[in-house]
Design goal:
single chain; alpha+beta; N Utilization Substance Protein A, Chain:P, domain 4; OB fold (Dihydrolipoamide Acetyltransferase, E2P); GMP Synthetase, Chain A, domain 3; 5 domains; five-stranded antiparallel beta sheet; four-stranded mixed beta sheet; 15 strands; about 25% strand; elongated; cytoplasm
């Protein structure tokens, strides 16, 4: 029997064929989805699709539908969908008898425009489900991998990019390096941060600020890491500004820092450019907490360290000229060192015994400094004038939660006492 072709559904087959080729959907799945779409419509029209045979040929864009019914005596039809009277059956074939099965081709076009519209909507919904499944299955096991994708649309809160199969991926504002500039059509690299799949609506979230992105870039540039001779132990980043990386070598003949940096910085130059000139410090990892903190504060030279392992705190003492190096511009160095070592680091200037003997308790300045300010400073462990003067200004602002103007006034009063 010749297959029935309908102009109203040919376009659906064409779009489905294109989707199949683009998403690499196997033929079995394709036929199953098309058949299920027809059956959903038939069930809505007749109340059941159990007695229908649906044959689809997606390659040619045609289909056949047959309804199977049982012949019953005239006047005994109880279900017109599954039964046919003897008289009606003999109009199809004159030799039908009661009890026999009748298979009759159904002309889908006779169901009207509403049925065809219903089929379109059902098929569109199935395609969308397949697209979601295809996207989720492609990326669910790729979290932590770097991907190159093309910028498709730039919005205020996120950038929409597309991969080589035209799947949409999202780079949120919070995952962008502050200095990044995106232009439609350009290719960017990012790490796959996570794959959300709420209500079967997958969202692939990318990141350029994640420490994992820096790690993957470094792994690609340093063969010794890929070979397992060097391991990346810790990474701390302030995206677009500065990063610290702790590495360890499993071969005594290999200098892990030198291998990661490369001759004249050759191995990190490309990474620095990729990260909008983010400065990268590489240090040797060690299980010795004091030594690790000391290395993390590089380039500052530490005089001594007091460790509080229970509270993960460290008091670091340095010569006055080393303090600014330990803190770094805008406090970046000490902040990164704390992130890298996972210790709260407080920096102090070394005070000689002679200076300590001449010290004055803060409470004696109550006539010049408000008591609440004195209490705030004492609350961070600084009880004397010399202790405050030897503490970094930024630390007083942040730890004591004071305004910069207030801190400057306190320092002015204390300095005047010793001038």
């Amino acid at each position: 029997m010749a297959a029935v072709k309908k102009d109203d559904v040919v376009s659906m087959f064409d779009s489905f064929k294109e989707f199949k080729e683009t998403k690499n959907i196997d033929r079995t799945t394709l036929v199953s989805v098309l058949e299920e779409s027809f059956r959903n419509v038939l069930a809505k029209i007749f109340g059941s699709d159990e007695n229908f045979d649906v044959i689809v040929n997606p390659d040619k864009g045609d289909f056949e539908i047959y309804r199977n019914r049982v012949v019953v005596a005239d006047g005994e039809v109880e279900d017109e969908n599954k039964q046919v009277s003897l008289t009606e059956a003999r109009k199809i074939e004159p030799d039908y008898e009661v009890g026999e099965d009748v298979s009759e081709r159904v002309d889908f076009a006779k169901f009207g425009r509403r049925a065809i519209l219903n089929l379109r909507q059902t098929l569109a919904s199935k395609i969308l489900e397949l697209e979601h499944d295809s996207l989720y299955n492609k990326y669910k096991d790729r979290v932590g991998q770097v991907i190159a994708a093309e910028v498709y649309q730039v919005w205020k809160r996120e950038v929409l990019v597309v991969d080589d199969e035209n799947n949409e991926l999202i780079l949120p504002k919070a995952e962008q390096i502050p200095a990044d500039v995106y232009r439609k059509g350009e290719t960017i690299r990012a790490v796959i941060e996570r794959v959300d799949n709420e209500n079967n609506n997958p969202k692939i979230i990318l990141s350029r600020t994640s420490p994992m992105f820096l790690q993957r870039l470094l792994e690609a540039e340093v063969p010794e890491i890929a070979e397992g001779l060097i391991a990346i132990r810790r990474i701390a980043r302030i995206p677009g500004e500065r990063a610290k990386i702790a590495v360890e070598s499993f071969d005594d003949r290999i200098d892990p820092v030198g291998a990661c940096v490369g001759v004249k910085g050759s191995r990190v130059h490309g990474i620095v450019r990729e990260l909008c000139n983010e400065n990268i410090d590489v240090i040797c990892y060690t299980g010795n907490t004091k030594l690790f903190i000391q290395r993390a504060l590089s380039p500052a030279k530490v005089s001594s360290i007091k460790i509080d392992e229970e509270n993960k705190k460290a008091e670091v003492y340095l010569k006055p000229e080393e303090v600014s190096l330990a803190i770094g511009r805008s406090g970046l160095n000490i902040k990164l060192a704390s992130l890298l070592t996972e210790y709260t680091i407080d920096v102090f200037r070394e005070v000689s015994e002679e200076d300590a003997d001449e010290d004055i308790y803060l409470d004696e300045f109550a006539d010049e400094i408000d008591q609440w300010v004195i209490d705030a400073i004492k609350g961070i462990g600084l009880d004397t004038a010399k202790a405050v003067l030897n503490a970094p200004r930024d630390m007083l602002v942040e730890k004591a939660d004071l305004e910069e103007e207030t801190v400057d006034n306190v320092l002015k009063v204390l300095r005047a006492e010793f001038e």
